[in-house]
Amino acid sequence: MSENMQKVMEKAQVLIEALPYIQQFNRKVIVVKYGGSAMLDENLKQQVIEDVTLLKLVGFKPIIVHGGGKDISRWVEKSGMEPEFVNGLRKTDADTMEIAEMVLNRVNKSLVAMVEKLGVAAVGVSGKDGGLLTVEKKYSDGQDIGFVGEITEVNPKILVDLLEKDFLPIVCPIGMDKDFLTYNINADDAACAIARAFGAEKLAFLTDIEGVYADPDDKSSLISRLTVSAARHLLESGNIGGGMLPKLGNCIDAIESGVNRVHILDGRIPHCLLLEIFTNKGIGTMIFRDEEEMNGNDAE
Prior knowledge:
The structure is a single chain. The chain is α/β, with parallel strands linked by helices. About 45% of the residues lie in helices and about 25% in strands. It has ten helices and 16 strands. It has helices at about 5-25, 40-55, 70-80, 95-115, 155-165, 185-200, 230-235, 245-255, 270-280, 290-295; strands at about 30-35, 60-65, 85, 90, 120-125, 135-140, 145-155, 170, 175, 180-185, 200-205, 210-215, 220-225, 225, 260-265, 285-290. Strands 5-8-2-1-11-15-16-14 form an eight-stranded mixed sheet, sandwiched between helices. Strands 3-4 form a two-stranded antiparallel sheet. It has a two-stranded antiparallel sheet with strand order 6-7. Strand 9 (about 175) and strand 10 form a beta hairpin. The chain is globular, with a radius of gyration of 19 Å.
């Protein structure tokens, strides 16, 4: 067999491996939380958008929820202010909120343009649109951190309508409270709340680490499959810290609220979404219900 034919056969094998996953997840909702370094590197950004667009074209119903914290910090500094964080949450006064909304809307429309360039119709919405995300003021250990919102209600009608009309929704994590004041929302929280509202098939977090480690200091301790009870045990063990702590809590909450699978992926790896969803082994950490492990389900 020639070298060219060998390469063709390998490509065919990849497609065949993907086929059962395409069949299984056809017309299913997958929420992708997009943030971290994958938003700053133009090549990675292009690859993430290509991945999500491909998911759409093979029959998935993807929803992107994006962050933009590093861009917000950059613009806050350009405005002569110092970014301030309390327990990992951005302290957001009225001026910072104005900058955050401006930057996030700019990011949102740039992602819309990238999807449209690939031939898929996309619509960017804010959590303010159609009452998508209602919030109340969030406190950090009793401290007032300004216009930071805790989601109290999700009205997914606008996203349902967009999906039914064959659009790819791209959500900016901004919401309003009952008095119609504008609040910044943690993008992980927004993605989790939207996935819960849909009972999504999958919720994928693109992060700056490979996944969940049994020991954060040992890179060989990556856990590829994690039940909810094992995830909770990890949280209680004290081995999990930093940004993974609230993220893993969100994952557990999502599974217990009806999301079928949660994936934590390294967004710095090219085409990480496709590798996780369409291959037998995957590359990140997948979290799933305890009963599937007990029933011997392969939990793909």
